[in-house]
Design brief:
Helix content is about 50%, strand content about 10%. The protein is α/β, with parallel strands linked by helices. This is Adenylate kinase.
Length: about 230
Amino acid sequence: MNRNDVWDPFGTLRRVLWIGGGQWAGKSTVARLLGVRYGLTAYHYDYHDARGHNDRRIARRVKLGEPPADPDPDATWVNTTPQDMAAETLAGFPARFEWALDDLRALVSGRPIIAEGWGLRPELVAPITDSPRQMVVMVPTGAFRDRQLDALTRAAAIGHDVSDPAQAQRNRLERDRLVADDAVRSARRLGIRVIEIDGSRDAGAIADIVADHFSPYLPPPEGEDA
């Protein structure tokens, strides 16, 4: 896929600013802060992927000859390896990215759109942008990820009824680390900026760093004259 091959009827995709990276790095918070500051439309990949794409997920399983129902939770989270979990997640991202692009195509805004989520992978985004500067990748350090697990209830919950919640959580966290590491390797190969989140700066300071990176594409902040 290259930029000229992507259907973009309203020119929306050409104006998207992308935040990818690892789970629990603060991507959603930064996107919200920048959305309010600059009057941007924020697209939260995880929310749409979990709630708006299930019909497509089922249709894809049927097309592949798989059962339409979700796999057994133990098979997914307990009786597998983090390496296999990461490989399956990475293999599924391209199809899920196309669903996100469909969502974004339907948005029309007088200002740029900022899209964030772990499925917005550097190798998928890079071919449809004019410059690597239209994307950043945020990844948490191990210590910051642990802090997020203590602070955020949703980060510490599997959300599925499994026989061994502790093993499922260990598998999930290692999968997340592997997927994040892959995003970093991909970003560096493509010349996309990586921002490591270690907790030494608050969300506002990280938003300032991301805003500076995106500055060629951002309008003046809300309430300021151009």
